[in-house]
Design a protein that fits this description.
Elements (H helix, E strand, L loop, with lengths): L3 E3 L6 H11 L3 H9 L5 H8 L15 H14 L2 E5 L4 H18 L2 E5 L12 H9 L4 E5 L6 H9 L3 E5 L13 E3 L15 H15 L11 H10 L6 H15 L4 H9 L9 H18 L3 H8 L3 H36 L10 E6 L6 H12 L3 E7 L2 E7 L6 H10 L9 E2 L3 E7 L3 H15 L8 E3 L2 E2 L7 H8 L13 E15 L5 H5 L6 E8 L2 E7 L6 H7 L3 E12 L2 E12 L1
Parallel strand pairs: 1-12, 2-3, 2-4, 4-5, 5-6, 7-8, 13-14, 16-18
Antiparallel strand pairs: 8-9, 9-11, 10-11, 14-15, 14-17, 15-16, 17-18
Helix pairs in contact: 1-2, 4-8, 5-8, 5-9, 5-13, 6-7, 8-9, 9-10, 9-12, 11-14, 12-14, 13-14, 14-15, 16-17
Amino acid sequence: MEKKWEYPNELDSSLIENLKNQTGLPETVIRLLAARNVATKEEIELFLYPEKASYHEPFLLKDMDKAVSRITEALVNREKIEIWGDYDVDGITSTAMLYLFFLKWLGLKVEYVIPNRESDGYGLSKAGIKTAYENGITLIITVDCGITSVNEVEYAKSLGVDVIITDHHEPDKELPGAFAIVDPKRTDCTYPYKHLAGVGVAFKLIQGVLIKNDMPPKIISEFIDIATIGTAADIVPLIGENRKIVSEGLRHLENCKNVGISALLKKLNFYQKKIKVSNILFGLAPRLNAVGRMGDANRAVKLLLSNDPVEAAQIVEELETENKRRREFDTDTLAEAIRIIEDQDHFDPVHDKAIVVSNENWHVGVIGIVASRLVEKYYRPSVVISINNGVGKGSCRSIPGVNIYDVLTECYKLNLLEQENFGGHDYAAGFEIDSKNIPAFKSKFNEIIKTNIPVKDFDQLLKIDLEIKFEDINSELIEKLNMFEPFGTSNEQPVFASDNIEISGEIKIVGNKSDGYYKKQKVKENHLKLKLKQNDRIFEAIGFNMADKYDKISEIRSNLKIAYYIEENVWNGNSYIQLKLQDITV
């Protein structure tokens, strides 16, 4: 699909000049910052040096005072607590972090539960609450779940078990009757930052307990590495408080003290090296996620809790095995989904504004990944449903401009979805559905999106941050761009554009696309490697999965326009500037 380039709005030249004079930064950097609404000297300093920013007061979160008081009461009375998590990385890290804090620093009697994705489903369950009650649990604390568990909380209360909910997902109109609900997305919560991950909310809970009990605030730094992994993996905006958490945490990961995380870093050859968000997204997170997708997520929690290097290394090997198995399921399911979409449903990019695909016995652990892959391929909101014994479990992923949770809510109002296991947020959601309702759901889902979303929102936009000339690219710019990290949602890596570009020398096609679907289809999707020239400046460039442009650019060779990242590449101990192409056109 061709990308449409979207250029930035013109910036106030007097503002740029003033900021240049106040900060001494290059104009290119000032323009990038201003385009991200970082437009005062103070904001620029906190953005470039996030360690100087302060955490928000945790008690600004609605019900934080009640939650902390109840935990303190449990500490005084020596009550038995249970942490109830989720089976994704956010839930796994939240669970491990709270467990370590309660056990080590409070000496509480604490247990944890991570539901099985296939047999238990998402969130609190009455069966699990009953088991907790029978085991003497008097307080359940949820992490990364619980905000829609109205009936389950009522059941817990009927047994005399208090529930504290910590979550970051969108609440329904009716909140559970829990002892306390700590969720920045509550409509009555005035917390100044709304985009914490589940592990971020749990992190704030620890801060609250430390303050309430006059404990050293530096204790929180012991958990920053775990909080960083969960935050980065959950694809929340990496601005504001999340930026501070992840910036500090990445530095801690370079000299990680957690035995389990260290074992995983060693396996991935990241140990005692500079860690980036991409290392978490494509290295640590898939392996922690894999055990929850393919079976028992408790193994990932056990890794984060381990103090035994031998045990940790063994668990890491299990994670590696499960991740390989997950990739096989992922590859097969994606191939089958594409076949259904193109051969059976005859996908039409002009007419079809959404994708809903279902099949018997697809592994529920990979349907979310497959939905993401379909969004990448077709740039359409995508739903993948696995049907088992007449019940469909669906996972949804979306594109900018389409709030997938709102669309599902409209379908729910038409009684097309089950109330249990329905929830999510703008870009990702999940649900259960009676398989008989899938055709009607598919039709309505498409209709809602087609009716309510402007046509332009289905164009795949490539947002250009700044137009520059090759003469602007130098080591000083690289140094300042490094200070923009960590990159992620709402703080994406800057995309530059340049025109009047010519190709210098030979164009090479290198590498093989690793996507198993394309291998099975014997489709060659390789990378371009070439040198690009503007005036007298030449840079090496690589365009991943852009070999389809080879014929066109090799014929024209000049007057090209390119969109690209600027990166420092290291090879055989030598560093050089490389352009990572995002698009190339005439």
